[in-house]
Amino acid sequence: MNKYKNTLNLPNTKFSMKANLVKKEIDILNNWNKGNLYLKIRSSKKNRKLFILHDGPPYANGNIHIGHAMNKIIKDIIIKSKSLGNYNAPYIPGWDCHGLPIEHVIEKNIDVFKKKLLLNDFRKLCRQYANTQVNKQKEEFIRLGVVADWDNPYLTMDYSNEANIIRALIKIIKKGYLYRECFPVYWCVKCQSSLAEAEVEYCNKTSLSADILFKSIDIKDVLSRFGICENKNFKSIYCVAWSTTLWTVPANSALCVHPNLSYILLFHNNYGYIISENKFSEFIFRVNIKNYSIVGNICKGKKLEFLYFFHPFLDDKVPLVLSDHVNLYEGNAIIHIAPNHGLDDYLVGKRYKLRSNDIIDSYGNYLCNVHSLLSKLNIFDANNNLLEIFYKKNILLHSKEIEHSYPYCWRHKYPVIFFSTYQWFINLEKNNLRKKILKEIENVIWLPTWSKNNMLSMVSKRPNWCISRQRNWGVPIPLFINKNTGDLHPNTIYLMKKVADLVELNGVDIWWEIDHVKFFNINEKEYIKIVDVLDVWFDSGATFYSVLSKRKELNNFFADIYFEGSDQHRGWFMSSLIISMIINNKSPYRQVLTHGFVVDSLGHKMSKSLGNIIEPSYIINKFGADILRLCIAYSDYFNEISISNDILSTSISIYRRIRNTIRFLLANLNDFDPKINIVDKCDMLLLDKWMIYCIKKLQNDIIDLYNNYNFHDVVKKLVHFCSIDMGSFYLDIIKDRRYTLKNNNIANLSCQTTIYYILEVLVRCISPILSFTADEIWRFLPGKRTEYIFTETWINIDDNYIVDNNIWYTLLVIKNEINKIIEKLRFNKIIFNSLDCLVILYITNKINDLLYYLIKELKFFFLVSYVSIMDYSLSPVDSYKSNIIDGLKIIVRKAYGNKCARCWHYDISVGKSLDYIDLCKRCIINLYGEGEKRFFI
Fold this sequence. Notes:
Layout: H1 21-34, H2 37-45, E1 49-50, E2 53-54, H3 66-84, E3 87-88, E4 94-95, H4 100-108, H5 119-143, E5 154-155, H6 159-174, E6 178-188, E7 193-194, E8 200-215, H7 219-225, E9 236-243, E10 254-257, E11 262-268, E12 271-276, H8 280-287, E13 293-300, E14 308-310, E15 317-322, E16 334-337, H9 343-352, H10 383-393, E17 396-409, E18 414-415, E19 417-426, H11 433-441, E20 445-447, H12 450-461, E21 465-466, E22 468-469, E23 480-482, H13 492-506, H14 509-513, H15 516-520, E24 527-529, E25 533-534, H16 536-541, H17 543-548, E26 559-565, H18 572-584, E27 589-595, E28 598-599, H19 616-623, H20 625-633, E29 641-642, H21 645-667, H22 674-677, H23 686-707, H24 711-740, H25 746-766, H26 771-778, H27 805-827, E30 837-843, H28 845-851, H29 858-862, E31 866-871, E32 880-881, E33 888-894, E34 898-899, E35 906-907, H30 921-928
Parallel strand pairs: 1-3, 2-26, 4-5, 9-12, 10-15, 20-27, 26-27, 28-29, 30-31
Antiparallel strand pairs: 6-7, 6-19, 8-9, 8-17, 10-16, 11-12, 11-13, 14-15, 17-18, 19-21, 22-25, 23-24, 30-33, 32-33, 34-35
Helix pairs in contact: 1-26, 4-5, 6-13, 11-12, 19-20, 20-21, 21-24, 23-24, 23-25, 24-25
């Protein structure tokens, strides 16, 4: 071989086998930055159809985690694939900058005693901190290879955005959807603020449950409801209510049963107990009642309405009322009602006009006037005192600790409470808004499909939206209300517009700093200034208005797609939809894509407390961002995404396969100039035409997968193409032709033309995912081209590469059958290489018609030294019969002749020429003659 090495067209390229991504990616990023890549993409796409992916703003606090990385990488893949598809797809990254977490960071760093003196300075510190975090996260996102308008992101704390958030609120108020009410809301005693549903997570909590006795005021009335005409020695009758929130009992103002459930009167030791018929067995077992009888009739709950009972320990009377929210899942199907401390309780209280009792302050401490044993005691520390009260009053039938699901503040990991305060709400029932939202959800494309039903369920069940928070760092609710009536100032819209204009110039601080009496001519004796701020979900939910409709390059109220995690069904997707339906009577998005959470190899959600976090920076600094991008793209992100060392190892193997394939292809174009050497399709070999047909089909399939956001199958198709179609098929077959023919031989140039088209397709297919590697490949491709792959579109391959697929599929099957025999021969050490073999195909006329005109070149396809075709009837007894193709038998034997020192084929012509004793006739022609002619393979 060495003797003839210089006569072969051996592959050669400076595209390295070792990726060295960690270093190269930094150089590539510097080049992108220096070359203003984002602006060049915009310029190249400016006349194309607009595609808008609206960025759901991450919170500006702390380093990015693997969930952030996954989210931004998938968005980048979407944007880049759309740009390839001839869309103009600008990407404006955003950040959510107001809210409690930033306040907490600042509070930890300043003197607690000076907080009230430094509110303006406090807000400035919040703004400074948010800016610092935005810049930090921006650098981390850029390192991921995410191409965006990083110089002009949107921040919810930008003055213009803050002003436009207020203007969105003005539109809502003008349409009459805002109201103020004292209402039980999720309240965190640590945050000292109401919480949105999206800020609450459910965890297991141990609570004290109890069966509490409410004594009947009128025994005779109770007995008559159960069809009992006379008192049979009942000393007292009790309604037995079960509760896991014993701290709310002092606020009780009613008992509640389901109107259509059945209730019974149980008689025991001269006492009567009203309980649910369905929960009867559980009840007597739980409270250990043995000698009992059931008296009277079974009674539907609706017959018990307006029975009256004594409050368990306060001097008060409470009615029995009805509600459908009572259920049989737990307890006795009888619950106690405390309107200030539960949403369903509040609604029942409102319907029956029950009194509301304030029993705690905002820190969860009992007020002084509730009970001497509870005064100033925190509700989460009150169980023992409550039990003491219950025992003294002899109203505790049974108590037990249970574990149940309970809402927690997602920031503090602390149990929340329902607490009644005056808050501002968006009314979902006004003008049938809820029904309109549900109808509009049907018009949106939801992926995965289950997410639509999830959204429908959440909208159906959710309460009116509480948009107010009692904090300092946020967009104000700039209203004045009448001290006596609570009504809005008659000039509210005009005043709010003035505030919005001021905020656009000065930021939200102006609302707190300005003298509203002088500037707005407000009568302080009659009106009070609201100091609440907007829920941050309102900030981000209004960005379709404050960003999409205001940025010139977007020029649109509506996004083609929103893409976030599944938690955003009750967060950003929800808030955006509600606000847009009020303002525009239309969804802000045409399509919603949802991804799952990142978990470890055991399926556990990644968290610092579990110690199972893999930081994006760790992966990038060790392997490179392209490996992380590939790992995420290869995951089925519609479900939970697992990131582990094993999965990273798999991604590295996939990357190497793709890179090595591309390296081999590049190495075979080292002397190819597409301007000069491209072969017309009419002159190309049949195999090459078929391969171009296959690469066109691959590109079309991958375009469809990108359009359907199925990146997992994009990677699978690329791996299959590189491993099977290329590595195990085409590249093996063309090596002889590529290495042994003359450079200018049409068959060699046909092969190189095919490789050139394959690379043009592959570099585009991988560019949305392996962006850094695609950029590197782009600079090694021959021919004059644009500076960046990302300004390109999918390559247009001529549709006229007409091929007969049946020929090649049949040949592939035959090749696989031959390889089975060769492998056995190799295993038995009869041969060492497929070129050591000759193959005899015994075939029927039907197959013969298909293969006959290929006979001279079939050996190159099967990678053997000789192929002959004979009639099926002549096959020997020991021939291999194919179970896949009818009418095919095969013999594989050691090839005749000697091995050519140049092409390694065995041929009887080797040694026949005294001048070229170790060369076959074909190599002599290729070296010293006109060169062989190939037509098919």
